[in-house]
Amino acid sequence: MGRWWLLALACMAVATVRAEEEEASARLLASKHILNRYLVEDMDLVVKYTLYNVGQTAALDVHLDDFSFPEEMFKVVGGQLHVKLDRVPPQANVSHTVVLRPTRFGYFNFTAAEVRYKTSEDASQIQVAVTSEPGEGAIVAFKDYDRKFSPHVLDWGAFAIMTLPSLGIPFILWFSSKSKYEALAKGKRRRDE
Which of 31, 39, 23, 166 is nearest to 97 (CA)? Predict the structure, then answer.
């Protein structure tokens, strides 16, 4: 019976030491967000990556790689899809933004990016993590987006030109009859004087 207590005590001591070692190392939480409300063909698409270090030491040699944007569907306008950071301090966060331009419309599955880092300077094993996945999004054709959100100045101009005869002709007829009656009324007043 005494041996079981001794064995249980030894297991708890090992677990406690192991937990303290893990808490002392760097731990990154990564997120990936699409910041646009509408995803439109040939318009900018903003992707924000955020890395949070919730550990007690700095994360070193951090690599953020996103292979989910194929070159035949997206053109990189600003930023980079493969980023190397020397370190992420403990209890801090780092953000990175990429501006892309979709070249095709349709549904696209936005998958996770990969994050690789060392948990400490003497760590021999590289820690691998993935970001959150924004999921599937519909990239709208520019023609459809423009049809829905443009001010339609040309359409309103054509409408005004087409309604002008139906409003202008009755106004001209009314104005000419009004002028005739005013001229007759003035002539009558002069005769009465």
Answer: 31
The verdict on residue 109 lying in a domain is yes
What predicted TM-score, i.e. pTM, was given to this entire model? 0.70
Rounded to whole angstroms, how far apart are CA atoms 73 and 39? Answer: 13
- Please compute the mean of the pLDDT values over residues 99-107 and round it to a whole number: 94
Do 181 and 136 sit in the same domain of this protein?
no
Give 123's pLDDT tier (boundaries 50, 70, 90): confident
Q: State how many domains the chain has.
A: 2
What DSSP string runs through 90-146? TTEEEEEEEEEEESS-EEEEE---EEEEESSTT--SEEEEE----EEEEEEPHHHHH
Residues 41 and 144: their CA atoms lie apart, in Å, by 10
Does one domain contain both 120 and 178?
no
3-state secondary structure of 172: helix
Q: Is residue 125 part of a domain?
A: yes
Q: Tell me what pLDDT residue 88 has.
A: 93
Q: Are residues 156 and 72 in the same domain?
A: no
Determine the Cα–Cα distance for residues 63 and 88; give it in Å rounded to an integer: 11
User: Does residue 168 share a domain with residue 99?
Assistant: no
Residue-range definition of the domain harbouring residue 92: 25-144
Report, as an integer, the average pLDDT of 96-101: 96
Q: pLDDT tens digit string along 155-165?
A: 888 888 898 88
Residue with the larger pLDDT of the pair 154 and 66: 66
